[in-house]
Amino acid sequence: MPEQFVQCDLHVDIPNTVMVNAVGKALLRNNLVKGKRFFTLTADYVFGHDLLRAAKAFFAANEGNLISDELVATDVTDFSPYLIKVRQARPDVVCCNLAGNQVTNLIKQYAEFGLPYPIVGFNLNTADAWAAGEGNLSGTWPTVWHHDLDTPGSKAFVAAFTKKHGKPPENHAWIEYVSLKMMAQAMTQTKSTDSEKLIAFFETEAQFDVLKARKAYFRAWDHQLVQEAYPFTVKPKGQAKDKWDFLALGPAIPAANEPLEVINPTKEQNPCVLS
């Protein structure tokens, strides 16, 4: 969700700044930011524009060079003209600021073009990654949660979901599950279903088990769930056990010795005013 459009409701998914930082931390570890030339493909509507804003802030803070940005209309399905421009620009890294089916279409066509430049993205749901399929997806992408997360809570959730549905849960299933659990905790502790009392409880920044290594909490001033995020890449060909197993989850960000706040937008970056 674009930070400047966060509403008064509670926001469980990670915001754009966190998605950029999840991938950015991985790029920094691989020396793929400082002095590198970036080419971005950005969805031409508010979500894409805000994702680009977060990406530009990250590049500027870490000495990356944005050499070109291409705005992509929401009805584009053929990315050939854009990929020809990428080939001509010869960047060090290509960044995808698209969403939904456009991400899937882009990465399939990127694989077909055989471009030698690593591609990363600042937004990709696991269901869209699965839709792209092994052999098409490459690079580094962000996620709020993945079914390979090695915590007792995640393992129990994945086992129960898989038993019922015959496949592992994707990140939106996790969002729905932990959202319900947090609401149940709030109602239990307040002994109420009154909206004002529940909001007041969430604004105490109470801690919630969200099936991750660290507990999460909602910031009082913007109602954003502050939590760990993760980069993910693609396993080497042949290592996947099934069609949902070709993604490789990276280490949580921020690091265990860092506060969760460091990857989130600040008040200056997020001019949300709750009424």
List keywords for this structure.
8 helices, 3-stranded antiparallel β-sheet, disordered N terminus, 2 domains, 9 strands, Rossmann fold, alpha/beta, 275 residues
Could you tell me the CATH topology label of the largest domain: Rossmann fold
* Helix/strand structural class: alpha/beta
Shape: globular
Query: Fraction of residues in helices?
Result: 25-40%
Gap from first CA to last CA:
19 Å
Annotated CATH architecture of the largest domain? 3-Layer(aba) Sandwich
Low-confidence stretches: 1-8
Task: For the largest sheet, list the strands in their spatial order.
Answer: 2-1-3-4
Query: Can you tell me the CATH superfamily of the largest domain?
Result: Response regulator
State Rg: 19 Å
Write down how many β-strands occur, each being a DSSP E stretch of 2 or more residues: 9
What is the chain-wise order of helices and strands?
HEHEHEHEHEHHHEEEE
How many helices? The count is 8
What features would you describe in this structure?
With 275 residues, the chain is α/β, with parallel strands linked by helices. The protein is built from eight helices and nine strands. It has two domains: 3-144 and 229-256, 3-Layer(aba) Sandwich (Rossmann fold); 152-218, no CATH class. β6 (217-218) and β7 form a beta hairpin. α1 packs parallel to α2 and α4 (101-113) runs parallel beside α5 (126-132). It is globular and about 60 Å long.
